[in-house]
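Tokens for LCP family protein. Go.
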Amino acid sequence: MEVSINMTDKEIEKGHVNKKKLERKYLKKKKPFLKILLSLILIPVIGGGIYFLYKGYVVGKEIGFRFSPSELIQKKKEPELKRDSSNKYTNVMLVGIDTRANTELLNTDVIIVGSYNHETNDIAMFSIPRDFWAKPLSDGKYFTKINAAYSINEGKREDSGLPALELIVEEVLGLEIQYHAMINFDGFTQLIDSVDGVYVNVQNSFTDYMYPDGNGYQTVSFKKGPQLMDGETALKYARSRKSQSIEGSDYARARRQQKVIDAFVSKLLSTETLLNPTKLMAILTSIQNNLKVSEFSLDDTAAAVNILTALKEEDSTSSTYSFVLDPTIGNFSLVSSNVNNQEYVIGPKEGLGKYTKINEFVDLALLYPALYSENPSIYVYDIGLGYKNSSSKTQELKENLKYLNIRFQGTKYSDKEGEYIYSNESEKYSKSVDILAKYLGIENKIKPEFVTVNTAGDISLLLGKEIIVEEINSETTE
């Protein structure tokens, strides 16, 4: 558009006029209108952003968020989560509390510690059954079910329940806990619904005719196979424990709870959830009145988002491993359902309050999570190394990899060379085979052709003579 500019003869004669300069001067006068227009567009956008941040801050503050303006001003290194004294793991205690209507229960029926390995990105989850016996008070002398510890301490002093439970769990598992979070049933349901449900692969079909619903009991049923669960369905799946099947126990329930948590994390890692402000706000709102957490900062939040984003990448090699303190764990050597010959008292086989072996198992499970999660039976055979040497090597393996089912099966051959380790069930124990092969320095991971009969155990380890490589010296004659 051409701009008409009136100039006096005097201005033209003096040569002080620059037409472009005057055009800019003219347009500058029109800018207030543009500012008003832009303001009308941007104010709702900026206002919405401020509301989002404010809402997130208010919700975060209520559940334990600690914000310092210096965290935004100061230039810091890459944010990191708190770690244990080994600087390798971040451990989080997750607690689910029973707050059913028409009851005054404050039992923590879900107690899980998730351990994140910063070197491998693997996550190991350890569940302590609700009926596991421990001392509820640090200065107490009596033992009771661990799910009552929170209520007992909270009754003595408000806000002391979670820290007290954290100390008990640290003692039982031998882990240093950096963060904790407790959610009630309503929060759990809303949390699952906030991400539009979770996909869970139901391992076994089961029906529970005595699922508590606040006014009595109802029947809940699940069929084997993958399915999308909303919050209410996921809660029933995670809480049911009265089925007349393999799923009808606290131990099976603990495994199902871990599956739901793993499914939620998987859904959270999906692009549409992790990067969607609306969904993140829905998550914050859903947990606002139903969650208690340990204190966390802006750096903690940023570090967690960084880890979640990294885990979301397609080339991520992270895995999640599940462990439950039930009587089968550690090759049936750690937990008893009749401690000190007291029926239905679940606790360490060493005796109430004695956790040395459980702690040792947890350390090994963190070091070799795939091996201890697959928990294979490992049968060792002498095929040429000699009975005595093979037996000695088996014993050494049992001492270093405690709580696995490792057995020496005697001599199978006496003239074979080399060492072999392989799974007797195709690829079922492939991770364990790889770990053991690396640990023992064995390259042969396929069943050798000379073994024409089946060997026992999930994994077979064959110990033969050392292969001697003869050196041929060529002599030259003059």
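The longest strand covers residues 108-117.
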